[in-house]
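Internal ticket - ligand job 445, cobalamin:
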Amino acid sequence: MKVAMVTPASDLHRTLLYRLGHVIYEPENSIPGPLILGKILADAGHTVDVYEELYRDLPMDKVLRADVIGLSTMTSTAPRAYALADYFRSRGKRVIIGGFHASVMPDEAKEHCDQVITGEAESVIKAVIEGASTDPVVRGEPIPDIDSIPFPDYSLIRSPVNTANFITSRGCPNSCSFCTTSRMFHPYREMSPEKVVEAIRHYRAQGFSRVNIQDDNFTANKARTKRICRMLIDNNLAFRETFFFGRVDVADDEELVDLLQRAGFRIILVGMESTNQKSLDSVDKKQSVGSVHESARRLTNLGMKLSASIILGLEYDTKEDIARTVDFCRSINAYSLQPPILTPYPGTRLFEELRKEGRILTEDWQYYDMMHVIFRPRNMTPLDLQKLFKWALRRFYSFSSVIRVLRTWGVAEAVKRLGMALAVRFGSIDLSAPERKYRSIISKN
Ligand code: B12
Ligand code: SF4
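stdout (structure tokens):
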């Protein structure tokens, strides 16, 4: 059978402005799930093509050559996935929908397709595509031994990709109330260090010079992380600069930091979230502000590139708290700032709580992208929080920071920072239809 797997992007993320932003901000990369499922289907003898819509429009004529089309959903991409699904079905195609959003809203997704797969789809994808499993909603059970799952196969992708995203564990041992991934991937499972090294060898052989490790917490099991690092160093397989998500407490283990750096794991994204302890506690973060700050400072002092993620809009945060957190990140010379706006994703405890309190402003899912305020915060208006998001970006990616970046990381990074400084200033002048619609939602609240 001929199968196309499509990862859509929302109307907003397909505008010229966002596409330009992607060029500056991140190297082209793909969501791994469809490439794993595609590999399973290709091994079973099907012809598979995988497309991403984030960086380039879909070549519809090619997609429509498939017999079956699989669509991946995040919450913000669900409306676009549904529009595509309706179109593909009108052209006589069989359509399957899966991924994060469809897993928690299967009845909604079902209206637009032939079958929905919820959860991790590896165990059922072949049966569904081949017609052996015909229920309208099929539950994919998590595979306990993730070593047995094939690597994402980048030879199947027909869209531009220059970085291989790869995940070496599934889920997270913690359970923060806003988090969707720890619910989607449950229980927490780890790939063996041997398998991780095999994957890195595989991506090197495929010609990749960059890999992003997309585990929710690559350092959750420090002994395993150390073993992976040692094996990469011993086999001379380290990439120059690998990105990963970690807990800030890696800083407490200098041996680990040293091994990570020697194995090329130099860009760490850490969820620092807030400088307000009550806010941290409100989302079950189980960390103290003081220790997070101390560890973050130590990480930058030890030469790691720290991508600081702070959540804007936590229950008890005030404008002053947010300003203090941004300034702290500047003061320690964090490599980048990610200020996602708190987003109550359907399926999380947070969504249920805010809905019960009547604080959800819209269920137009396209705005659930962590860049739009879609709930009423406790200590400020939604518009104030939306403005703070833009302020945080402008404050961190200031023109004066370009000099600091030049001194710390050199010319290439300084040029990138200059691009960001321009983008966060002029990017807010967005006249696209989705932004106009959003402004009308937020101004009423
Ligand atoms: C890599 C990644 C990206 C990459 C690549 C994404 C892309 N090109 O679209 C980049 C950095 C570009 C990105 C961007 C965004 N991302 Co992102 N991303 C991730 C990340 C960190 C890892 C993905 C991964 O490796 N997962 C592991 C694999 C195994 O899972 P999977 O790909 O989801 O696939 C499995 C299932 O979902 C299912 N499945 C998936 N697709 C399909 C399709 C079919 C047909 C079927 C049957 C099953 C199925 O089966 C797969 C195998 O088990 C996840 C977090 C996470 N841990 O998942 C966030 C995550 C998916 N992203 C998220 C968000 C919000 C975004 C952005 C909106 C952020 C932003 N503000 O720009 C954008 C939207 C991009 C878009 N397409 O419009 C959220 C989604 C939350 C939600 N519930 O909707 C997540 C969960 C992070 C979070 N905050 O919790 N992202
Ligand atoms: S630590 Fe991160 S990945 Fe783990 S539950 Fe909390 S937010 Fe989710």
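Auto-summary: The chain has two domains: 2-140, 160-443. The two ends are 50 Å apart (CA to CA).
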